[in-house]
Amino acid sequence: MSGSRGRVGRIRQQHEGTILKAAEHVFARSGFQGATMAEIALRAGMPKSNLHYYFGTKVEVYRAVLAHILELWLAETDRFTPDADPREALSHYIEAKMRLTAERPDASRVFANELLHGAPEIGDYLRGALRALVADKSVVIRGWIAAGRMAAVDPEHLFFSLWALTQTYADFETQVGAVLGRSNLGPADYRRATDHVLNLVLRGCGLMPPAAIEEPPCST
Amino acid sequence: MSGSRGRVGRIRQQHEGTILKAAEHVFARSGFQGATMAEIALRAGMPKSNLHYYFGTKVEVYRAVLAHILELWLAETDRFTPDADPREALSHYIEAKMRLTAERPDASRVFANELLHGAPEIGDYLRGALRALVADKSVVIRGWIAAGRMAAVDPEHLFFSLWALTQTYADFETQVGAVLGRSNLGPADYRRATDHVLNLVLRGCGLMPPAAIEEPPCST
DNA sequence: GTCTATAAGTTGATAGAC
DNA sequence: GTCTATCAACTTATAGAC
To answer: PROSITE patterns given for it (chains A, B) (predicted)?
Structure first.
């Protein structure tokens, strides 16, 4: 307590966390240009000069927020392995993605905004780690298809579809809410959304019987 | 030619069109806050005071761009009528949406940005015309499902999925391009994307045989 | 209708006391 | 490490000559 130098930056770590949390919220609402340091500082409960003390510039704050988000994105445990069950792997991925979208909508929005503006800060990540990951998993999926374990679906585009189908509930929540007649989405909405996406994708990949359609007789 | 007052504002109409085209591009790239009147003026090839002469304020320019886009959105001829063939109606809608996305990606991006920021300008449209449209078409779709003409899919969420699946190719083109190893998407990419979305959705709605999966024997 | 010059306001960033 | 005061740059919008 009296020691002038405790473990390196315990206070620093805490304050940086507070700032990043506030920044994620503000960047999600207003985008990079629209967000102001004053607004972030207000939300973080400290004068804006402190933000500059900890991060230097506005871009650095933004980069830190993005780095935080990319960790979330990559931490998703995916089960796309040759021996896995395609249906289980896809279900698990969709559920994980949807849970992340529901729990961290602001993270999704900051990411969406960055992409929408041409990804000036995370272009390297997209062309590097993300591209490699998709390439890897696509090999696995092509293997499943060749083995007749799922319908012929373009693996890369399947990933685009999965991202779009799940993240749309955070990025465009305003639109979804307006159409459903609510101001924002609750747990029940997300449960329904998850069921819907699971059904659509699993059936779309031939991993589910096309139930609810009248069973055609076996012999034409 | 010498008449001081020809048909009302022929020049005006032309110049407003030039400005709106430039504005759509700039707003798509930079968002509302990020875009500057100077940049729009430069792209439109006129001094920025002219923009104020024609539209008054920056917000008015933005509103005009959005109004232009909403026309496009609603002009989509949809064939969701009780007697229509579900498969044909869905195919047509997907193809139209994807064509619009490919031909006017900037329009999609401006719209996406507006939604992402909480739709401050078009909230009324979302809660009014759009909600009514979706409600209407959902009744039709529920009729198809009750008649056993397609699989049980939540109609409202189906629309969210269709919008997400198609517009993602414009809004997040940077991500798609990075994963596919290109700097931007060409006609071949859009053809492939359309095929993919058609397959996924039609099969997902039970409107297509789950081909490419080994046919299970008729009797278990 | 078109253009240059400029006013008025906002924002990122820093200086310097504590 | 924290805070107040302030600077410098930028942006919207307008005034007023042509």
So the answer is: HTH_TETR_2 (PS50977)
Q: How far apart are CA B101 and CA B96, in angstroms?
A: 9
Closest chain B residue to the Cα of A146, Cα to Cα = B212
Say whether B164 and A165 touch across the interface (CB within 8 A).
Answer: yes
Q: Judge contact between B123 and B71, C-beta under 8 A.
A: no
Q: How far is B160 from chain A (nearest CA, A)?
A: 7
Chain B residues in contact with A195 by the CB 8 A cut-off are 154
Q: So what's the pLDDT on residue B214?
A: 46
Q: How confident is the model at residue B46 (pLDDT cuts 50, 70, 90)?
A: very high
pLDDT digits (tens, 9 = 90+) for A141-158: 999 999 999 999 999 999
Report residue A63's pLDDT band, with 50, 70 and 90 as the boundaries: very high
* Distance D17 C1' – B49 CA (angstroms): 14
Rounded CA-CA distance A118/A126 in Å is 11
Tell me the mean pLDDT in the region B10-18: 95
Nucleotide nearest to B33 (CA to C1'): D11
pLDDT per residue as tens digits for the range B102-131: 999 999 999 999 999 999 999 999 999 999
Give the span between the Cα atoms of A198 and A90, in whole angstroms: 8
SS (H, E, C) chain A: CCCCCCCCCHHHHHHHHHHHHHHHHHHHHHHHHHCCHHHHHHHHCCCHHHHHHHHCCHHHHHHHHHHHHHHHHHCCCCCCCCCCCHHHHHHHHHHHHHHHHHHCHHHHHHHHHHHHCCCCCCHHHHHHHHHHHHHHHHHHHHHHHHCCCCCCCCHHHHHHHHHHHHHHHHHCHHHHHHHHCCCCCCHHHHHHHHHHHHHHHHHHCCCCCCCCCCCCCCCC
Q: How far is CA B130 from the centre of its chain?
A: 13
Using the structure block, give the residue that is written with the tokens 């005071």: B49
Q: Could you give the angle at which helices A48-55 and A37-44 cross, rounded to 10 degrees? A: 100
The span from the CA of A97 to the CA of A100, in Å, is 5
| Mean pLDDT over the full length of chain A | 93
pLDDT of A45 higher than 80: yes
Under the banding of pLDDT at 50, 70 and 90, the label for residue B78 is confident
Q: Is A41 exposed, middle or buried (0-12, 13-18, 19+ CB in 10 A)?
A: buried
